[in-house]
Give the backbone structure.
Amino acid sequence: MAQFGFESDIHNILKLDMPITNAPMARWQRKASASTCNSANTSVLSPSKSANRSVSMSRTPGKTPGKNGKTQCTPSKVGGDRFIPSRNNKQMEVATYLLSKENEPVNETNEPAQKESQKAWSVTLNGYDVEKAKILHLGGKPLNAPEGYQNNLKVLYSQAPTPVSIKKSRYISTVPHRILDAPDLRNDFYLNLMDWGRQNLLAVALEDTVYLWDAAKGEITLLMKVEQEEDYICSVSWSKEGNFLAIGTSDCKVQLWDVEHQKRLRTMASHTARVGSLSWNDYILSSGSRSGHIHQHDVRVADHHIFTLNGHSQEVCGLTWSPDGRYLASGGNDNMVYVWPGVQEGNGNQQTAVQSFSEHQGAVKALAWCPWQQNILASGGGTSDRHIRIWNVNSGSCISSWDTNSQISSLVFAPNYKELVSGHGFAHDSIVIWKYPSLTKVAELSGHQGRVLNLTLSPDGSTVASVAADETVRLWKSFEKDPVKQKTKSTSSSIIHQPIR
């Protein structure tokens, strides 16, 4: 029996028809309560005061309902109260004005007066004219802001081109403008086998022969050939006017040629070893030989040898006069750089160097004077050094030094863009354009399959020519003053192969 009594209790507990004491109010009960509350509120108002009813319902009551014994109706908090944002009175007035303006009919007769009135309203309400406060203006000239109005974004919608937008970027081609074949070119780091004269003639020495290439006409001329088979050309250098060419040979001689008439004027013999470097200063021709001596020649007189400069202990492989003719810079295989005074400042055969620089750890063949700073000299070291060094010859100080990680065979200043160009051998075999004086790399021109031996600049300064051990002469048109935008061309169409013989 006890078992049946327990089951009966469980059955009674599980029945759902019993009242639930703690359950929430049913929905029908909530509706009845809300209708009772609304009827109580409406009964307070008399039917004759309908206007008061609309006012009272649109405004928030000042007192809380339910106080002083009256019925209190608590609104349901399910979902929260409605959010009404607060707006500035001026914004509401502007919005009302703009809405009313759109709905008004257009009256053409009173249009000027209306525009003036609208402008006055706009300035009064906003502080500026609404018609002119546009971010994008699609037609006409750009609008000027009123006096005293500050706008940090006016550059974004101005139609006037800014200096940045009209600035043209410089294009440097990575392929040569022209390639000339140079067979039998002697692969010797210490020789100077190419020079570009003022008459726009490029002189190139190929073993025992000197050829001239006319850059304007594209014509090639055989100028001379050494008499002995075992001899070879060691250096070439144009005079200042470009009408005479000096040629140094392996038989210790210097030949002077009249290019216009293709005639040898004289042969000057004073050295005891091959002449690997030459440089002109008006009528003075300087020649450096493997013996380490530098001879000064006055080509106007029969006794041409004026005096000898003694300083280098090994071959003189770099020689160049400053643009103003005050100094002669020489570099040698003894890792030394000397700066010598001009001939007019010398004391006969007892000339001494003005400056001597011993910081390089390799042979110094690459030398270049700065055209726009005539007291600045750039020098480059060989495989053991690989540094470009900038010198102030007046103070004797090294202004800057930069490791190029490659043998430096030649240096040329490009005045059109105030840049420095370097030719490299082991191990990059390339041409690098540097910004002066920061020595930041502007571009690297690759294409040679052997070490670059010499660089020379065209008379107008727009093109640099490079000759390398791969027996080619490449012309790089990288320094035009006003470059013209050209269509993209393939490498095969932009390179013109032309034999130099």
Notes: Residues 27-44 form the longest helix (18 residues). The chain is about 15% helix and 35% strand. Helices lie at 2-13, 27-44, 50-58, 89-103, 111-126, 154-157, 163-166, 491-494.
